[in-house]
Amino acid sequence: MNETFLAIVRGHLRFLPADVRLGPDSPLRDYGLDSMAAVSLVVDLEDEFGVQIPDSRLTAEALSTPGRLWQALQASSSALR
Asked: Is the pTM of this model over 0.70?
């Protein structure tokens, strides 16, 4: 995970306090990532990193933590590997 990725994810977590570290296993749903926020988050990540994440990779599990989301993003882009 890189800082740009983490900043984008943080921007979609309305219940994540500014002083709380966002780690690879942080539960995104606990910090406010609902289905609407997830769609917006994925669009922002795709735009920033110039990739398209296939729908088959956008599972509930893939959207459960930053680490799993980063893996889905990496799998969609050879530039992030």
From this structure: yes
